[in-house]
Amino acid sequence: MGSPAKEQDRDADEGPEHTVRLQSFYIMDTEVTQAQWQAIMGENPSHHKGDNLPVEQINYEKVKSFIDKLNQKYRGSNFRLPTEAQWEYACRAHTTTRFYNGYRVDDVDRIGWHTGNSDSESHPVRQKQPNAWGLYDMAGNLWEYCEDHYHSDYNGAPTDGSAWLTDDPTNSYVVVRGGCYREDRTYCRSVSRLTNSRTEVTTNRGFRLVRSPIE
Description:
single chain, little secondary structure, two-stranded antiparallel ribbon, 3 helices
């Protein structure tokens, strides 16, 4: 997990590279859509409207409310946000390249919506090439919330794939991953990450869910 040292000149918070061992999990093949959000929450806060567009203008706290309602509706499902380690593992799909389809920036147009091809708006899910595991929009479209609190590097990060949380009640920042339609295509790299306030609402933040296998 993380960037090799030679790639950390621009984004020091992507290192150090480290080994993580994960338990099995399921992850959505797309970002949560506006139709899915509407079905659970009864409203659609998004700026760019469309049933198959990813839901946006939702903050971390609102996402948590959605997950609570979803788990109440489907008892025993244990839906939740991915940990940052789960997210990167799913994005990479066993690749070690900068992007999940290779090294070249010129190849990013095939897998993600970014500032160079998006016309400054989000796009319906499943429009770009998925990764090797059939997951769409892990690169671009919307930044995606993870469970973890933000840390400035991976020194001391869990090695078991669990969420890296803090005991500091004043820590109001979480991790978002994957780039978005308003960012340069270099942010579509599998390791790209940003810090994000729990309460910030923008048109370029979304999420997908994970859950544990049902025994």
